[in-house]
Amino acid sequence: MKCLVTGAAGFIGSHLCDALLKAGHHVAGYDDLSAGKMENLAEAQKSKRFGFVRGNILQLKRLEEACDGVDVIYHFAADPFVKQSAENPVHSFEQNVVGTFNVLEAARRKEVKQFIFASTSTVYGDAEVIPTPEDAALQPISNYGASKVCGEQYVSSYAHTYGIKGTVLRYANIFGERSDHGVMRDFYFKLKAKPDELEILGNGKQNKSYLHISDCISATLLAASKQKSMFEPFNVGSREKHTVNEIAKTISKHMKLKPEFKYTGGRRGWVGDVALMLLSTKKIERLGWKAEVKFEEGVKRYLNWLSNKS
Ligand SMILES: NC(=O)c1ccc[n+]([C@@H]2O[C@H](COP(=O)([O-])OP(=O)(O)OC[C@H]3O[C@@H](n4cnc5c(N)ncnc54)[C@H](O)[C@@H]3O)[C@@H](O)[C@H]2O)c1
């Protein structure tokens, strides 16, 4: 099978390329390298079944060319930042709504059969039901969340109008090797710069689900291969949640430090931050998926990777 991965040089996209190649597929990576790095694709580039196109998802013609002979698209290119989507709503709209529309349109024109879309737990906003099931109301509290809801809706409409099977993955916080954003990386570098003090955004009680990248990839491949209906959303996350305070303590412990925690205050770390998030993962578990990497083990792997890199 030939797969196109947008956002291929990014954190999740590059791991996905590696996994698809390992499964024997041909993979075309598509990325404008605005945030992604070619070094993330070092492993993928060793394979003769891998090709890379430097392109922007806002360039429809280039996307169409890249979709030649493609069976499945994994659309992962995005502006993935909640905080920045408040500061620059136009950028997140263009990248995540117009960009996603373009990728779908290229898929339609080139008769691609399946479209897998990287969505997010933030589509639920401050969910009323915890753990939150897939049929909960979509009420985002950030522009990023709203842009992903829009993307999902187009994936659904293209599935039903043009017969492009749509698979939506609503990810919790994904962390691990190659990630260059998120709370764990933030704490690690803050502590390296100032080992006796750690600034924590918000009150530290934000409580959320974190999933290691290897479990995110196994869930993605399983959902993509086992989905029966034309359109289906799947939550992808861990069964337990962790507070920001717990993460601060875990990282300090691994770094053998005892910093004083200083809080910026407030229930949310930033505008649009969802303070409580746990997804119900029963639906994807029914397909046979199970998270394998325990939180502490995942953090250890990530910190080892960060320290080897820095
Ligand atoms: N990491 C998480 O915790 C998380 C959680 C929920 C959803 N997601 C979603 O998963 C996807 C991947 O996230 P990530 O953490 O790997 O982010 P990332 O920033 O590491 O990867 C995104 C990639 O997309 C590329 N890109 C951005 N704009 C582009 C454009 N206009 N044209 C072509 N390429 C472009 C970037 O260069 C980068 O390589 C995103 O859609 C994100 O919204 C991530």
Set down the secondary structure blueprint.
Elements: E1 2-6, H1 11-22, E2 26-31, E3 50-54, H2 60-66, E4 72-75, H3 82-87, H4 89-109, E5 114-120, H5 143-162, E6 165-171, E7 173-175, H6 183-193, E8 197-200, E9 207-212, H7 213-226, E10 231-236, E11 241-243, H8 244-254, E12 260-263, E13 276-277, H9 282-286, H10 295-309
Parallel strand pairs: 1-2, 1-4, 2-3, 4-5, 5-6, 6-10, 7-9, 8-12, 9-13
Antiparallel strand pairs: 9-11
Helix pairs in contact: 1-7, 2-4, 4-5, 6-8
The structure holds nicotinamide-adenine-dinucleotide.
Nicotinamide-adenine-dinucleotide binds at residues 7, 9-13, 31-36, 56-58, 76-78, 80, 95, 99, 118, 120, 171, 173-174.
Description:
- There is one protein chain.
- By secondary structure, this protein is of the alpha/beta class.
- The protein folds into 2 domains: 2-174 and 210-236, NAD(P)-binding Rossmann-like Domain (Rossmann fold, 3-Layer(aba) Sandwich); 181-208 and 241-277 and 292-309, UDP-galactose 4-epimerase, domain 1.
- Helices cover 39% and strands 20% of the residues.
- It has 10 helices and 13 strands.
- The strands form 3 sheets. A 7-stranded parallel β-sheet has the order 3-2-1-4-5-6-10, sandwiched between helices. Strands 7, 9, 11 and 13 form a 4-stranded mixed β-sheet that branches. The protein has a two-stranded parallel sheet with strand order 8-12.
- Helix 1 crosses helix 7.
- Bound molecules: nicotinamide-adenine-dinucleotide (NAD).
- Nicotinamide-adenine-dinucleotide (NAD) is lined by residues 7, 9-13, 31-36, 56-58, 76-78, 80, 95, 99, 118, 120, 171, 173-174.
